[in-house]
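$ ./design --mode recover --in tokens.txt
reading tokens...
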């Protein structure tokens, strides 16, 4: 394992320390295999395959640090222990990053099929001057606001709404400032930077960057990979592995 700071301009923090309650696999979600490859390995390799990420800080449950490192030989990674929620895990990852890093990405191990193009678009936008960048998709479904009883209050104009994916990208000092003090665990990383008054830019996301949350999502991811292995998909990002 090489260190995350020396000369590395772009470092990705990969929170993988969740327990995966909604998936219910009986093991931490990031260690669940997709076509024989753990999700966290797919996520690390996806980031590195972009060619724009120099180092990945992988954040795992405290008793999985050695196991995760063993899954990731010969890759520029550092593995550290996470915290009680995603925000605490990202903070632990940030603490492992050296002062000379220029750009930090924060991704999710739970988005194992994220195409390289999403990663490179985010980094390009930060390099072009945005303090914070999120990949987004338009919202396809009609969105209703409801009252506590579930009765519709209004129909939201979705033309200005976007669903946010990861990796989110940041100028390192801005993200460090956002995480100084006590960051609100209900807010995403870009939301913390937004709260400082910094503008948050958007770039196009990709449906393949979806988050594996439930057993349904895992099934979809498996089917996409099976299709790629059978030559049915030629999209980058879906590697049969
Ligand atoms: N995560 C983390 N540390 C935590 C909680 C979550 O690093 N204490 C990570 C997860 O490993 C995942 C990402 O944050 O890669 C997004 O979280 P989520 O999809 O909610 O995963 P889990 O928290 O594992 O799932 P659940 O909420 O169903 O338990
Ligand atoms: Mg969670």
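writing sequence...
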């Amino acid at each position: 394992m090489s260190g995350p700071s020396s000369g590395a301009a772009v470092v990705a923090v990969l929170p993988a320390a969740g327990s995966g309650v909604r998936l219910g696999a009986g093991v931490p979600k990031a260690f669940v295999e997709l076509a024989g490859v753990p999700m966290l390995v797919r996520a690390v390799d996806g980031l590195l395959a972009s060619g724009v990420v120099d180092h990945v800080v992988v954040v795992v449950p405290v008793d999985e640090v050695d196991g995760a490192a063993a899954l990731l030989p010969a890759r520029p990674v550092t593995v550290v222990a996470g915290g009680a929620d995603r925000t605490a895990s990202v903070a632990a990852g940030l603490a492992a990053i050296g002062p000379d890093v220029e750009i930090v990405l924060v991704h999710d191990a739970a988005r194992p099929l994220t195409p390289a193009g999403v990663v490179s678009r985010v980094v390009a936008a930060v390099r072009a001057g945005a303090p914070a960048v999120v990949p987004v998709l338009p919202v396809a479904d009609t969105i209703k606001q409801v009252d506590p009883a579930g009765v519709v209050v209004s129909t939201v104009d979705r033309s200005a709404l976007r669903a946010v994916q990861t990796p989110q990208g940041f100028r390192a000092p801005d993200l460090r400032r956002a995480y100084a003090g006590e960051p609100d665990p209900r807010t995403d990383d870009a939301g913390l930077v937004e709260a400082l008054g910094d503008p948050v830019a958007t770039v196009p996301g990709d449906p393949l960057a979806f988050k594996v949350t439930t057993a349904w999502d895992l099934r979809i991811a498996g089917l996409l990979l099976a299709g790629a292995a059978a030559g049915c998909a030629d999209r980058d990002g879906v590697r049969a592995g």
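exit 0
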